[in-house]
Amino acid sequence: MAVIPDNQAPIFKEAAAKLNSILKSEVEEDARLVQKGLMLYRHGTVHHLKYMVKSIWATVQDVTPVRVYINVSDPEESSCTCPANSFCRHRLAAFFQAYSDVASVSDWVEAWRKPAKEQLNAEKWGLQRAKDLVKRDSRSGHDYDSWATSFRESFEEIIKGQGEPRAYVVPGLFRSYLRRVEVSAPLESVWKNLYLIAASVHSFNLLTDLAIDQGHDEEATMDRYYRPLFEDLFHDAEEYIERLAYGTMPFSFDTFLERLKDDVVRLTEPDASGGYDRIDLYRLLWEKLFKNTGWREAELARLEAFGEGKRDQVEEIALIHQLVLAKQDGDSLKRLTALPVSALPYMFYWLDGFRVQREWNRMGPFIEYLVQQLRNYLKHLGEYYTCKKFTRYALKLVGAYTREIGRGELYDRALAQAMPYSFYEYEDSLFEKGQYEQWGELQSYFGFEYNSISNERLKELQKAAPEVLIPLYHQMVGDLIDMKNRSSYKQAARLLKKLRTVYKKLKRVPEWEEFFAKLLVKTKRLRAFHEELTRSKLIEVE
């Protein structure tokens, strides 16, 4: 087993903290994952653990053995030979094995599980309270005011029934509240969809008020406990809206939609919590349900009436959305470009809409602006994982547009603007286009790791551009020797043999001999390294 160098312990502790935020104890799938990873680790199934330049390599003996690679700086950018696409039990077991060298795995697991235990108890209470309320009340009729009253009263009785809730019990209580809302919906499917859309809007507002009133509106608390609820509300509402928008609505809906339209205004209130999901729900409703031209003109006038410079950013986005709906793209883009760079992600909603509708001409100017501002926004964003997530989605949209209209150079520009967060997409693009020299320079700049390159790619390079491998092998050999342990010396010796083969293939043997002679002199005090060179027959024993 590899022993983690003392100076690398902080990196592993940072990785453990990142996993704590990536894996959520209140999510059943994550809880099962941690349990399975812990079991594999405790049963001693992790073998041949190697630590190499901020990465872990290991074999995990499950039903069949698998090979695991973990990028300690970015655990989400890890891989396993098992079929799982996301962070799997094998990766977790290997990480636990390495982490046990620097801290207690049991302490990490106990701290990770604590909120889930209290949340489970709160959810059980909330579910029982919801059942009691259902027994007491009948199904909702066709009365908008009674719907609104029911949402508010159920929220108060379930969420606040045991006093002021802690942030980590809110998700469980809120799910119980939603169950109560769902079972009280009208039976007719068309009315049920409208009722559940209204419930989503009111629940957004009630949950926002709760976060602010209870002091839960700090970013970290919102991200962990509230943001998933807002996201679920939006996605559920999206489904109900799609069902309703593509069906036939009775005329009696008009008054309900008008009342709902007025309540939707709260989704644009300044300084409200809920992130992008609030304004996305506003945009979705105005795009799919509120199609009355008079309503849209009145909403545009309402937003314009605030006056220039007096709208909050979310209100400005709402105004831009009304302009997009009116196909006044010039005015909408002009307003968008006048906003701070922090507003850039609000573009995604419109870009995705253009993509779905295949409105490539409308999409073009917005994509150009996105690519132009990518680097500035990533500098503003700062946090690595958030930048990676943003980059991945931005490149998906840019790629859809550039592939459709044949503008590969714009995609390449986006890749360059988004570096280093677009590293994997950029290196894939360069390799696929046969730009091996640029690919090699990119690898060298960001720290080449031999084991992270597939055998297929190495074979392709050895055949098509072996000279690209020389500086990469030199760099990796140096890094491995600097680690000064027996495992890294073995790896260095293997790479030196491959490096010698490349020099021979290129008929540059004198360069190899000169380099190797200097290396032997430089490392003459590293006896263990020289022993590995001898074992590998790089040094001949007389």
In short:
By secondary structure, the chain is mainly α. It has helices spanning 9-22, 28-42, 89-99, 105-136, 144-159, 170-183, 189-213, 219-245, 253-264, 275-288, 293-304, 313-325, 329-338, 347-357, 360-381, 384-405, 408-417, 423-432, 436-446, 455-464, 469-483, 486-505, 509-522, 527-535; strands at residues 46-51, 55-61, 65-71, 79-80.
Describe, in plain words, how this protein is organized in 3D.
The chain is mainly alpha-helical and 542 residues long. The protein has four domains: 6-103, no CATH class; 121-291, no CATH class; 354-433, no CATH class; 442-535. Helices cover 68% and strands 4% of the residues. A four-stranded antiparallel sheet has the order 1-2-3-4. A hairpin with a 7-residue loop joins strand 3 and strand 4. Helix 5 (144-159) packs antiparallel against helix 6 and helix 16 (384-405) runs antiparallel to helix 17. The chain is globular and about 95 Å long. It starts with 8 loop residues before the first helix and ends in a 7-residue tail after the last helix. The mean pLDDT is 88.
